[in-house]
Amino acid sequence: MIDLHSHTDQSDGTFTPRELVAQAKRVGLGALAITDHDTFAGYDAALPLAVEAQLELICGIELSTRFHGASLHLLGYFPVAAPSRELRVWLNELLATRRDRNVRLIAKLQSLGLDITLEEVEKQGRTLTGRPHFARVLVEKGYANDLQHAFDEYLDESAPGYVDRKEVPVEEAIRRVRESGGIASMAHPVRVAKNNWEKLGVWVGELAGFGMQAIEVLHSDHAPESRAYYQSLADRYSLAVTGGSDFHGGNKPNISLGTGIRGNLKVPYDLLERLRVLAA
Ligand code: AMP
Ligand code: FE
Ligand code: FE
Ligand code: ZN
To answer: What are the domain boundaries of the chain?
Structure first.
């Protein structure tokens, strides 16, 4: 069993890289990919610890991109060689646009009458401060009962506190991942095209045309019949299959590393072999 989708506290997870490596060993993973949002900081910190623990660690990333006017999460995997310097420089630029968004988000929340400062929120984050960190502060301050309510009432795209962030066009993100030796995979297709399967099929074809080489068929939030449909799309467009829990520690407490929600996940090792062949 492997897990190709996980987050550390360097993005919006709550486990440190050390704790995540320890957890991967505890549940017996054959390989783990760290796919933090917009940063390799968690992977970089985990790598020497994984070597020491004899855990196979795969370098990954999760990027928020723009496609057909909506947000699309794209996973990037580097199973053969480390990502390029150029990609790291570009990620630093993305982090800067996040900071700009966070400044505007604080102003928006303050204009709604909330007592919240950027300093408080940034204290929650490490390399990256994202909306889950805002949610945590809103809960701590009593503005919401739990993290989900903080999103529903303030931070979700449809909520009054929402502010836009400039997201990169998906074709640019796919190109940059490929140019630095990586494989791009569509993250959690259940959140794409509002679950309109016909539209999703057309969109996956377009993304394959942009150079996307894989799709995340296996994910904690995917029902069995959805997985079967995503697998048929992988077959239709000759895409590799990826899979993972999307573990965020205490920020998504119902999801377990490796096994998903109440044991609904089991990702076989041979998926990783195929990624390696593609990346070589
Ligand atoms: P950000 O990249 O800072 O805009 O934050 C996006 C992250 O917030 C996502 O990766 C999710 O983990 C979380 N998120 C976004 N929308 C929601 C929502 N409606 N409910 C719960 N979590 C959400
Ligand atoms: Fe996340
Ligand atoms: Fe995601
Ligand atoms: Zn994720």
So the answer is: 2-84+182-279
Say yes or no: CB of residue 132 within 6 Å of ligand 1.
yes
Distance (Å) from CA 221 to ligand 3 centroid: 11
H-state helical runs in 195-269:
197-210, 224-236
Pairing of strands 70-78, 214-219: unpaired
Instruction: Give tens-digit pLDDT for 8-26.
Output: 999 999 999 999 999 999 9
Ligand 3 midpoint to CA 62 (Å) = 7
Q: Is there a contact between 256 and 5 (Cβ–Cβ < 8 Å)?
A: no
Ligand 1 contacts CB of residue 12 (under 6 A): yes
Would the pTM of this model clear 0.90, i.e. be above it?
yes
Q: Is the CB of 151 under 6 A from ligand 1?
A: yes
Contact 74, 65 (CB under 8 A): yes
Q: In the structure encoding, which two tokens stand for residue 170, read together?
A: 């998906």
Report pLDDT digits (tens) over 151-202: 999 999 999 999 999 899 999 999 999 999 999 999 999 999 998 999 999 9
Q: Under CATH, which number does the domain 2-84+182-279 receive?
A: 3.20.20.140
Atom of ligand 1 nearest to the CA of 133: 3
Return the closest-CA partner of residue 177 out of 88, 71, 272, 66: 88
Distance CA 248, CA 242 (A): 18
**Which ligand 1 atom minimizes the distance to the CA of 248?**
12
Q: How far is the centre of ligand 4, averaged over its atoms, from the C-alpha of 273 (Å)?
A: 21
**Alpha-helix residue ranges (DSSP H) falling in 127-220:** 131-140, 147-150, 170-179, 197-210
